Predict the structure.
Amino acid sequence: MTQRFGSNHSNGGEQNTSVIDINQVREKRMQEKKRRAERVFFKNLLSVYSVTHGLKLVPIDLIEVSEEGCSFQIPYQNEVQWPKQSDEIPIRFYFSSDTYLEVQVKISNSSHSIDQSARMMRFGCLLDQTIKSYPAYQQFVRFLKMYAEHSHQESGRKTLPI
């Protein structure tokens, strides 16, 4: 739905018209709400790690997820070149302290970024959709989309009623 707002100017009959596509505005708001909802999960409810070549768990900061891939960042370390572009790495989504869902991703791109005054390396990944855990991951992503669409922002109440 496109709405036009404008006015005719008396200076020679020129018309000043602005076009606003309501669907674009709505989609942009939904994407922003989805990102906020994902960050709530990623920062407060979900721990995300990967396993280095030395079999050490490394915490990663998940940025976004989709059914096809995800993006994450880690603090930049000049002496550590892990992961590398084209590396295939496991990513573990810990929903409790001792249970996790593991997916396999392939690094498709990387870039430097600054997050809260810290130097980071950001990675874009493609998911291996052939592994057995992929359907569970896919449902998790779908849940996040639905949660973002239907969730509400708390308006100041600090405790839940009993």
